[in-house]
UniProtKB/TrEMBL annotation:
Principal subcellular localization: other
InterPro entries the record matches: SsgB, SsgB_sf
The entry's keywords: Cell cycle, Cell division, Septation, Sporulation
Domain of life: Bacteria
Subcellular location: Cell septum
GO biological process: division septum assembly; sporulation resulting in formation of a cellular spore
The keyword Acetylation is annotated on this UniProt entry: no
GO CC terms of this entry: cell septum
Family: Belongs to the SsgA family.
Stated name of the protein: FIG01363442: possible membrane protein
């Protein structure tokens, strides 16, 4: 089964800076509970990984939802994802709502919500296997 990828433009606000960035939303059925957001811009390269359900639920919420370092909410035309970095700084990513919605729809077409499964034994084996330097 192939993954889902949606590319879009977005805006990042960190402290007083605003930057236009390229964003790749990625979903891999081998990691069915997570989404990956790759952000590329002149001043930043970063990747955020968080729960697919958080993104899907955030698209229906006009107030921020989520616990921990990622929160998601919808506005009339944008999806806002805030991420608290290890430094404690908050970065706000704004994306077109319809692109984010299409990404969630495509990921749920591949693996419907509630039908995710994870091979825990294979996951633990991959984590504990010796790696070559």
């Amino acid at each position: 089964m192939h993954g889902v990828e949606v590319r879009t433009a977005g805006w990042v606000r960190a402290e007083a800076e605003v930057e236009t960035v390229e964003v790749r939303l990625g979903y891999d059925p081998a990691d069915p509970f997570a989404v990956r957001v790759d952000i590329s811009g002149p001043a930043r390269q970063s990747t955020w990984v968080f729960g697919r359900d958080l993104l899907a639920d955030g698209l229906r919420s006009m107030t921020p939802i989520g616990d921990g370092c990622v929160r998601v909410q919808a506005t009339s035309v944008l999806t806002e994802i805030s991420h608290v970095a290890e430094s404690g700084d908050t970065v706000l990513l704004r994306l077109p709502w319809w692109n984010t919605r299409e990404f969630v729809r495509l990921s749920q077409a591949q693996v419907p919500r509630g039908h995710e499964s994870c091979d825990v034994d294979a996951w633990v084996a991959a984590l504990t296997s010796p790696r070559e330097p």
